[in-house]
Amino acid sequence: MVHHSPIDIRGLAQPGATITRDIPFWFDEHTTADAEGRWSFTVRLSPGDNDFTFRVGDDRNTAVRIIVRYEPRP
Q1: Tens of pLDDT along 19-45?
Q2: Which CATH architecture has domain 5-70?
Q3: Residue 14 gets which letter from DSSP?
Q4: pTM, to two decimals
Q5: If we measure between CA atoms, which residue out of 67, 18, 71, 62 comes closest to residue 43?
Q6: Which residues contact 9 (CB under 8 A, 6 or more apart)?
Q7: With DSSP H G I counted as helix, E B as strand and the rest as coil, what are the percentages for the chain, rounded to 5?
């Protein structure tokens, strides 16, 4: 049985900025920073390392990569 756990990944950007979540070999996801610059994505974690990359719009120079390790409890 594969366990999945959803979490929210949050960040700050310029208000109104488009934030892109890179999804290799699939369609990227997008959200817009609110009036205070806050943005978030809900992602599902698989057991082990989960690799995420976020950027502002299409500017690859703003890319930030994070790795979240998920170890489900038996």
Answers
A1: 999 998 999 999 999 999 999 999 999
A2: Sandwich (2.60)
A3: S
A4: 0.83
A5: 67
A6: 40, 41, 42, 43, 52, 54, 66, 68
A7: 5, 55, 40
